[in-house]
Design a protein that fits this description.
Strand order of the largest sheet: 1-2
Radius of gyration: 16 Å
Strand content: under 5%
Structural class: mainly alpha
Shape: flat
Number of helices: 5
Distance between the termini: 41 Å
Mean pLDDT: 88
Length: 162
């Protein structure tokens, strides 16, 4: 029981510490965070829209019964496109790097969403909170973002010009 309590602090605190680091200690930190938010929002929205329209085979029905392969694939595609477009508009990095980063961030955004759904399933919780009704709570808005922050941090550290 104590392991899950400690894990929950790292699950939330570590990504937010990274946000503070990116904001305060990297060149264009606010722009990087805005870029990340854009990619994650597009990923979540496109997964929902295209998954609802196309439907089809379920991704992992025991963990998250409403997520489909179509939503997953379109979320990754639109993450890459939004990353490339944002990077082009603000001249952040090369188009090729931004597309690759968008693909990776789209994947990890979906992975974060699935991980949070898994946590809810093993704890028999439908909604983590009632703060945002109908959305599973605040963590449902942050789940993919928490994973994507860590990926963006490693991008900034090892692959970018920042």
């Amino acid at each position: 029981k104590w392991v899950s309590a400690i894990f929950s602090y790292f699950y939330l605190a570590f990504p937010f510490y990274i946000l503070i680091f990116l904001n305060n200690y990297t060149l264009n930190g606010k722009l990087i965070i805005l870029w990340l938010l854009c990619i994650v929002c597009v990923s979540d929205s496109s997964a929902y829209i295209f998954g609802s329209i196309i439907k089809g085979k379920k991704l992992l029905p025991k963990i998250s019964p409403n997520k489909t392969w179509a939503g997953f694939l379109f979320s990754i595609l639109f993450s890459a496109l939004s990353s490339g477009y944002f990077s082009y508009l603000f001249n952040i990095t090369s188009f090729k790097k931004s597309i690759i980063l968008g693909l990776i961030l789209g994947f990890f955004t979906s992975l974060g969403d699935l991980f949070e759904s898994y946590l809810k399933r093993i704890n028999n919780k439908k909604d983590v909170s009632k703060l945002i009704p109908g959305h599973g709570g605040l963590l449902d808005r942050l789940d993919g973002f928490l994973f994507a922050i860590v990926v963006m941090f490693f991008y900034v550290l090892f692959w970018s010009k920042f």
